[in-house]
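ARCHIVE CARD
SHELF: 3
SLOT: left
DATA:
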Amino acid sequence: MKARFSVILLSALLTACGANEGDDLDKFIKESGKDLRGKVDPLPEVTPFVPVEFNKDGALNDPFKPRKAQTPKSGGLRPDLNRPREALEAYPLESLKYVGNLKKGKLKYALVKAPDNAVNQVTIGNYLGQNLGMVIDISDNEIKIKEIVQDELSGDWVERAASINLQE
């Protein structure tokens, strides 16, 4: 009797699982793909890399030797290379983060986070970055910096503007 009952129960269960009517998932899959017409844009054309042969007698600088500071041809702008270095001049400008500012009376200080996670106060006239950058303005959302770099072709010192935006 138990064997007959288990066979009947098993066949009833298999019959219930095999019904195709009312299967919402199968209907959804069949209907969702009807109106799809996919279009894939063609890949952009890849331009081949053209290597440049290094000729040590040519006009190119040797990429494996450090460049030396050239003597300027004109007596124009010159940085003070004998002044004592400040702590934030040890880091590249890109690695410094402007994280906040303070006002003490008429002085405005910017809080700059270095890669070693030390937070330093800087004000107008302080130096930071590895390109002799001097802070010229501090606003609520950026620090404006005037860097002095040497032009590779002429050897003259030139100024360029840089900035560090507030990190939120």
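SLOT: right
DATA:
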Amino acid sequence: MTSLLQQYPLIELSGRLLLAGLLGGLVGWERERHERPAGLRTHILVCVGAAMIAVVDHGSSGVGGRIAAQIVTGIGFLGAGCIMRDTSGLVRGLTTAASVWVVAGLGIAVGYGGVNAGLAAVATGIVLLTLSVLDRLESTLNRERKRQELNLVLATGDNALMEMRTLLQGLREHGTRTRDINFTQAPDSLIVRLELVMKRNTRRDDLDEFLKNQTQVIHFHWTE
């Protein structure tokens, strides 16, 4: 640490850590407002911790990278804790996990100092733009779609796989996209649960008519 202080004044190193805390806090505040698993404190701690490691690593090796490179991998364990599957089977927390990973990168950049700190500030602006403005845009686009669950009981036979492909293709042609699919094998049938994303102008009556005309469909019902 003595050699590090000889290269850089303590006030400059402290400034890097404070800047890392500020940038990480900006991202964390956005996540906190949306009540995400990792919020203000988590993002500040990750960013400051990454910056501190980068400062020490850069000062010790002269060029840095030996220790800081492990942050990118190690932060994945923390980010994984933000990802969870809810009762409906949907995976949530991917964006928050990504934001934790990003602030670690911001911390590394700030810790290295110089032009890297400036790039970190620019990157923070891009991250905030993505999380706030694009989030509203994404919500607007999603309002044009609706999700519903379709439960099917299908007859099994020699051409069951081909018939299933034809069924899924027909659903796509009727304005749906399959988001998730689960199979359960019964003695004489196949139980299928489909999570469909439907356009607003997709008529369920048309889908019902299509399903009724499929010979392999024994029974079907919708779950809102």
